[in-house]
Design brief:
Number of strands of chain B: 8
Distance between the termini of chain A: 9 Å
Oligomer: heterodimer
Structural class of chain B: alpha/beta
CATH superfamily of chain A: Glutaconate Coenzyme A-transferase
Structural class of chain A: alpha/beta
CATH topology of chain A: Glutaconate Coenzyme A-transferase
Helix content of chain B: 25-40%
Order of helices and strands of chain B: EHEEEEHEEEHHHH
Number of helices of chain B: 6
Number of helices of chain A: 7
Number of domains of chain A: 1
Strand order of the largest sheet of chain A: 2-1-3-8-10-11-12
Distance between the termini of chain B: 41 Å
């Protein structure tokens, strides 16, 4: 069955959700929101989902969400960055290294610089896999992938998902390495479009979305997103449009 | 909270931390051997923010701006501008978890469309046209000064601002 890049990312991210865990995503997170809902339908019926600013949230205030994360009860979080680097740092603040004269200034990370250290696992994602988004070192560290062992930290990055590949984060050395390549992309494609050393000389193909995953996503999950007004316009436009 | 500082999990190794002198990395005083960021409390003299509803006694429902509750609790004085003045705001009729009791509030100002050019969830969307103008004006000091002259200093009061700059199409 054919699929588009965003459907592929939804499926790959949904596979990271574990049954019985609390999993969450923040604002402007249509791909993670769909991934969370898909996981609950496919393999994690007892997953607790927190999708900010939608009906899928147990709290009225962000303070309650932060405190839950600080208590170590958040298993999985999804976050994107304008830039992501080899060390698992991400940048949501600015392009250009001079803090007083940035070329482009973004709204910043809200609580991401806290949640990245509290959630047990964080999946980084980026819909653009190019050398300008995957860089050797980010212009501004909004949240750090690796910290010294004496820093109080409950979790950190575990994986990166892009339209071309996945990377795994190796905590002991504090670096990302290419994990799998989405067919039909090749190792040379990935090397060409990634601004840092891939850490490996080859990688297996990614297990593509199954028909069951795609049909569930395009059927009940698309319906649920529309009915609950959860990134409705995106769901209508994207899911099933391959 | 009223405490002078709090430990925070996170932010170590970020460029944000390099830019702030009110957050430092400090050891756990109870000897776990771990370090974490410790953030100095902010105690504003005055907080001014825009809310959904208020009554004449100063009870406030801040709409979806839940962080405003923390701001009101932290500040010595609180001035709110409100979309609507109603008979009575109570904990029960405030939008979920966003009640600020009058004991924390010094003054209430009736200012419909007071979030403009920003939006007010549940009432009106941000004025994208005006926002774009603000963003381009903020590129340098001269254009920003001109912006302030036109939108902030020239109008005699809020009503005149609304009349001149809030487009009627947005009111629908």
């Amino acid at each position: 069955m054919d699929y588009n890049d965003e459907e592929l990312m939804v499926v790959l991210m949904s596979r990271e959700v574990r049954d019985g865990e609390v999993s969450a995503c923040g604002a402007l997170s249509h791909i993670p929101a769909a991934a969370l809902l898909l996981a609950k339908e496919m393999h994690a019926p007892d997953a607790e989902l927190i999708i900010l600013n939608t009906v899928f949230r147990p709290f009225g205030t962000s303070r309650q969400f932060h405190f839950l994360a600080q208590r170590g009860e958040l298993g999985l979080f999804f976050v994107s960055g304008v830039q992501i680097d080899r060390r698992g740092n991400y940048n949501l603040h600015q392009i250009g290294r001079d803090p007083d004269r940035p070329e482009v200034r973004f709204p910043g990370g809200y609580g991401g610089g806290l949640i990245y250290y509290c959630a047990r696992r964080t999946i980084l994602f980026r819909t653009e896999h190019t050398r300008r988004s995957f860089v050797e070192s980010v212009d501004f560290i909004s949240a750090a992938g690796h910290t010294p062992p004496d820093v109080l930290r409950l979790g950190g990055p575990s994986k990166v998902v892009t339209p071309k590949a996945t990377f795994a984060f190796f905590k002991d050395v504090g670096e990302l390495r290419l994990e799998s390549i989405h067919p039909p992309h090749t190792f040379d494609d990935i090397r060409e479009n990634t601004g840092f050393d891939l850490g490996v000389t080859r990688a297996p193909p990614t297990k593509p979305p199954t028909d069951e995953e795609l049909m569930t996503l395009r059927g009940p999950i698309r319906r649920k997103m529309i009915d609950t007004d959860t990134y409705r316009a995106w769901a209508e436009r994207t899911l099933g449009s391959a | 909270m009223g405490v002078p500082y709090v430990p925070v999990i996170g932010l170590v190794g970020t460029d944000l931390l390099k830019r702030r002198d009110d957050m430092i990395v400090a050891p756990d005083p109870f000897g776990s051997g771990k370090v974490s960021v410790v953030a100095k409390a902010m105690r504003p003299d005055v907080a001014v923010f825009h809310v959904d509803k208020a009554d004449r006694s100063g009870n406030v429902s801040c709409g979806y701006q839940v962080e405003a509750v923390l701001l009101a609790e932290a500040s010595a004085h609180v001035v709110v501008t409100a979309e609507e003045i109603v008979d009575r705001v109570t904990e029960e009729n405030a939008i979920g978890g966003t009640f600020i009791p009058s004991i924390l509030v010094d003054a209430v100002v009736h200012a419909p469309r007071g979030a403009h050019p920003g939006g007010m969830t549940g009432r009106y969307a941000p004025d994208k046209h005006a926002m774009r103008e603000y963003v381009s004006a903020s590129r340098d000091d001269a254009s920003f000064a001109a912006y302030l002259d036109k939108y902030v200093f020239a109008p005699r009061n809020h009503d005149e601002y609304v009349e001149r700059f809030v487009r009627q199409a947005e009111t629908a």
